[in-house]
Amino acid sequence: MALWVAREQLGRNNLQGADSEELTKLLHPDHLAYLRDIRAQGVPARYQGQRERVTTRPHPRARADMGQVYVQLMKDIAKHRVLVASASHSALKHTVSSPFELVPKMLPNRSLSTEARLVHDQRQVNGGTHKDLHPPAAQPTHEQVARRILWLKARYPGIKVVLAKKDVAGAFRLLWVDPRDVELFAGDVPWRPELMGPGGSAAKFQGLGDLTVIYLVSSFGFSGSPGEWTAWGRATEEVHRNLRPIDSRRDGELHFCGKILVDDMVLVEPVMGLRPWVSSEVYEWAVTQLLGEKAINKLKDAEEGMSLPEARILKGAYLLAQPCFNYGDKNLPLKELQRFRGIANGWSTVVTGLKNELRSADVFLGGVGGAAVQPKLAQPEGSEARVDEEERSWEALWELFEDCRWLCARSETWATKFGGDIRELLPPLDRLALPGQQGEGPIFVSSDATPEVVAAIDWTNGLACREDVETLKPWIRQVTEAEGQEGGKLAIHLGEMLSFVAFACKVGHLWEGRVVVYAGDNKVVYFWITGRKSGVRAGRTFHNEDADALTRLEEKQADELMVKKGWDKLDIKESIHQALEDTERFGLCFLSWADQEDRYELMRLRELRVFRTVLRQPAELREVEDFEYFTGGARDPEHKVIAATIGPDPKGRRVAEFTAYLDSEVFDIAVLEGPTEVRWARLEQWAKSVGWSCVFQEFLTSQLGEAMVRRRVAGFVFPTEKSSEAVEFLMVKSVTPPAMGSYLKKLKEGNCVQTERYEAAINVGQEVMLPVVTAHAWIRQDGERQNVYSLSGPCRWPLTDSLEKGMQRILVQDKTAPVGKVRSLTGEEVWVLQGRRLDEWRNLVELIGEKEAEKEGCCRATGRRTALSLISTAAEIVKEGKESKAGMCLDKEDYKSLGILLQWLRRWRRGDFRRALPDRKAGGRDDQMRSVWFWGEELWLGALEDDEMTFGSSEDRKCGGRRRKEVRPVEETGARFIDLNPDFNPDMEIQAQVEEWLEAHLVGDKAASTQKAYATAWGKWCDWSRRQGWLTPFLDHNGDPIHNENKVLGYLGYLGWLGTSVATMKQAVFAIKDAHKRAGHGDTTVKMHRLWIVLNSLEKNSVKKPRRLGVTVQMIKWLGKQMASGADAMGELKVDCRMVHAAVVTAWFFMLRAREFSDSSGVDQEMIVRGQDVSLTTRGQPDENDPQEVTLQFRKTKADQEAFGTCKTMLRTEVEFVCVVTALHRLREVAPRRFGRGPESHMPLFRWASGPVLKRLEVQNLLQRAARALGLPAERFQSHSLRIGGASALYQATGEIEVVKRTGRWTSSAVQRYLHDSGDVLSGLARKMANVDQHVHYT
């Protein structure tokens, strides 16, 4: 309270301008009264709960970057917006602290800022209040801005209309909180002086403990902040709107106009005289008058603009490329869906109709257990209707993903799909009301049908069609079967709808960009067109005379009517057949006027899509819930699939039970999955006896995406002939297994077991698809040896424990485990590794117990990814078929934001929202409790939004309401503050900006990867220092050097005991050294002689890895021969083989680093080769047929951090399989979209046909296979061997080291380590040495 009084006495309340009498004629009295109440008493929390001491700590992301937290806090402290006290202060007994969190901050170009935004997680405080106790936070829409632009363009033809975006600096932070409520706006931070920047000595504050930060202003995280700020933001808009230029002859007589969205004001003005600049100055005056002199954000005014950046589209394209968005995959993490929803919401502002489709994603935003999402269903639990509703919800979501993938698939169409005419932002009725649109008016269409004939008319273009129902029979048959009609008869409402759609297939290209007005006489068709679903079966309303006549007259009479009316008769048969063909190939869609590229893209998406439907499981066999998970509860699918899992069955008894069940069922394909110890011949014999085919596929579950590995066999039984190779092609297998560390959560203390003996594993297998054994452990001294698996690879599949009647123990290496202990996986963790949800595990344990759940649910189950892949393969074999489209009618919202605000203010004036007195009694005070009530009266009070401006009228009026009294401002008032030459407003935050500038440049001297590695190493050192009980991780540079050296040596000894490599230990030392330098402590290792002796000794005595070898020409030829058959095949195999060969050859000739052509721990978008970086030419001219040279542009390399770029050219070699020109040309033949100006040329060039980028481990695997085939040591070949081999070959061919350095882009002599001299050169040197006439000269 004392600070509030001092602020008022010194006149430093930035809101004091609200007392100005000039505002009485510019704002509604209720609105102005509320602003003045806030200015006098502060923002009320209206908190109804208990007020007692609550302490917290920041969220993990904030704790990981406390330096940034302190930077943001210091900014508010410097502006006197924050009080800081010890968390143990006795005066804080009623203070409620909420945790701080850091969230990413976007720059105007949609890239991430180096700074983060500090927010307050005030959920506890928000539980004691409600947003409806504060002013409503209604926001404008794009539609309102578009309407204003189009009105101005109609009012002033030929005059440019411009937009400007003005930002309010600080926004929420400009509103002071009621001093009686500031105790609810606190947060706790740890005492970490070393992260707070330079200052006084921290020694005198030793033992201070945590700090409590009390905010005196409104915060990001309080539920009342948006509404309280909206009252002020809307006030600036209303002040700006109620003023107009003083010089109407020069700048026009209209009032100014703009829309404020939170703290961003969008000004919309015609370029007349100085009007845009005057409008901007007027708004700045309104902001400074109401919010203070420092409320204008000058920096953002200079840098922000309005556009939909390409980065936002690419961000969505990369996100949708993830497998979890594939059609049929129900293992979708909630976080990924939230990311998609946020990106797609940005798209929906410019993509017409997408906002309506996004409702399919909103159904899933609840999530279960933080893992996979589940839809929110309305039907009762356990009912058939609920099962059907869930399946429809999933299909609608998958269709939405497919639509968005199609939207961002072709970059050359982005300007059309993510842009277009601004009129398209308006609803159809508003578009029809636009003035000056006579030349581009609506299209009037009507249609009608009888059981024998359908007809439609385009009145605007003078076109008509009439077709017999017999012609539409293939289409009608599909519709009548879907509607459940008998006899294939055509219902009238279906006929009218089909006539309209068939007509659109033919003439739809003439309707693009126009409003189509459909005049029909059937309500069902009306609801179908407007809402894509109907709530009634049928109902005729009007008589459609001309369309009725076309369907009821004889054909000759109908033709005469068309001639009389002047209509051109159209033949729609071809369009109907094309629509049917597209529907069968791509699903429900109409592409009659689309280009071939759209069909190509849809075909690609269709090939990637799988349909998963399982009819039922055999009643006699154990139910396989992993298969059941993907059924969606379907009971009558078009194609029936039966799937089951069995255990070891050497005698074939379980196989016999399965075939006996198949004898009693009608199905299209059956899948039986089990171990290799099964008598599979019995299944094949049964299939032959009934005349069906049986194909077996052996696989590792990790190849199908499982994080747990076992070898299995799947048998497919189906009626058609299909080879084993064809089935294997459909059964997509991965070559990089998932790491179980990405599935498991942080280690809990109870999940560790003590080991009596622990030995590191040596000479373990290198098969990447199998678990990585890092050590062997003995739980008991006389017990059996157990393998310890690495978290970086997959885990072995769990086995049953016959003694404990549960699951055998699985040990994994976890560096966070206590000394002498290893991590033991629980049944719950194994369940998650097998791709299932935690809620399913809890339900199963409750049903059958934990031991039985481990045995039946973990050991004997199929695995979600395995079940998904097998059902997908089965569905592809039988060509399962039909799709559906989700959607609802357009939700038309007409925001009456000012009316809503005035309605709330009227209730506030009546006393409905009084300030809550502090309640400091346990349990609260009943007499102070209030309930929120909702109102249903009309929310339109007088003038609401836009000025109604009629031609030739100068009256001040409001759109849609009654005329206001005395709204026009006097011209003297307007002239007073319109200053075209404002005085310079200095920035008073120079110290904060200087500190930020220094912080930014203190971390810019090293590469990003080095910074990341140093940050990780420094974090581990900080953890070590806390365990040792040190006050700070920084060494005292003024203290005893021996004492400091002992600390570092002790840490290195601990790392050595853990088995850390010498390189990692040296990196840790340099990270510690670097952190001390940046903190201003100097080089603390200067006098640590023993430290360097230890490091040099470790380096000398460490086991050196064998030198990596370079890829030879023979290895490339071997790879080329292996790829040759696939390169001449069909489909994706052809593309993949040519892509792999081109990648290897390109990397070898151009000496590429792994990240320059593959996914090396992530895709480096700045370095990786794209299609547009490659030019295939002949004598410098593009050559599509027989190029003789290839030029590769390097945008950025490891040695070119400033991205100056360079180009290298290679010529055709005419050597089979060893020619980069030929390899890239052959790749271009099958994937032309990736080259030149193709729609995929901006993406990485070397990608699999299914979309993912070629991975470094995949390349390494191929090189090692080639090395083994040629008798070379495979372990000495890695992806970098391509660069080594290319450099060695070039050196042996030229003998010029400088040529090698320029071609391989080396700037140092590091290339010397890679070069290998050929035998011919060495033998020639030996002969020359032996023939030297050598003499000894001495004195």
UniProtKB/TrEMBL annotation:
Organism field: Durusdinium trenchii
Entry annotated with the keyword DNA-binding: yes
InterPro entries: DNA_brk_join_enz, Integrase-like_cat_sf, Integrase_recombinase_N, Phage_Integrase-like_Recomb
Name under which the protein is recorded: Tyr recombinase domain-containing protein
Keyword terms: DNA recombination, DNA-binding
Key word ATP-binding present: no
